[in-house]
Specification:
The protein is mainly alpha-helical. The chain contains 8 helices and 3 strands. The chain is elongated, with a radius of gyration of 21 Å.
Length: 189
């Protein structure tokens, strides 16, 4: 029987009851509509791995082929997901990144910022209920990282009741019962 080895996606804090950190995490959860602390820790862990790689590359010589190759790969990847500006493509700027930069690129945040949802929490619900698509693909993962080139293509899904799909279950039921199903009852589903 083969064993699948999974890599860690988050690390718990070294000091569990540090007031300053607890307050900061709670603020992030509220601001970006996250479900739990683990979602914050996951982003922090991702950032920590990227910063560690950048720190290691910075110790190498400027003309070192490994630093040039891997450094460019990291920078290009960060620019593509929109965390780093194109005019700041230096490894020094990677060390200045904050978890907020990554949380800003989540699909949940982008849906709210584009005005497709009334609140950050509404955005999460819409995504989970498969009302949102990126390009032609329906995405139901709130933590999906939106690339810069895909940002313009976030939209309501084609077969969603919010889009041009058929009405929701409740509205169809009311139409059968009442025979009309007016627009006043539309918010219910």
């Amino acid at each position: 029987m083969s064993h699948i080895v999974y890599s860690k996606t988050y690390t718990t804090p070294r000091r569990p009851f540090e007031k300053e950190r607890l307050d900061h995490e709670l603020k992030l959860i509220g601001e970006f509509g996250l479900r739990n602390k683990r979602e914050v820790w996951r982003v922090k862990y991702t950032l920590a791995k990227i910063r560690k790689a950048a720190r290691e590359l910075l110790t190498l010589d400027d003309k070192d082929p490994r630093r040039l190759f891997e450094g460019n790969a990291i920078l290009r990847r960060l620019v593509r997901i929109g965390v780093l500006d194109e005019n700041r493509m230096k490894l020094d700027y990677v060390l200045g990144l904050k978890p907020e930069d990554f949380l800003e690129r989540r699909l949940q945040t982008q849906v709210f910022k584009l005005g497709l949802a009334k609140s950050i929490h509404h955005a999460r619900v819409l995504i989970r209920q498969k009302h949102i698509r990126v390009r032609k693909q329906v995405v139901n993962i709130p933590s999906f990282i939106v690339r810069l080139d895909a940002q313009k293509h976030i939209d309501i899904a084609i077969n969603s009741p919010y889009g041009s799909g058929r009405e929701g279950r409740v509205k169809r039921k009311r139409m059968r019962a009442g025979g009309k199903g007016g627009d006043a009852d539309e918010d219910e589903d």
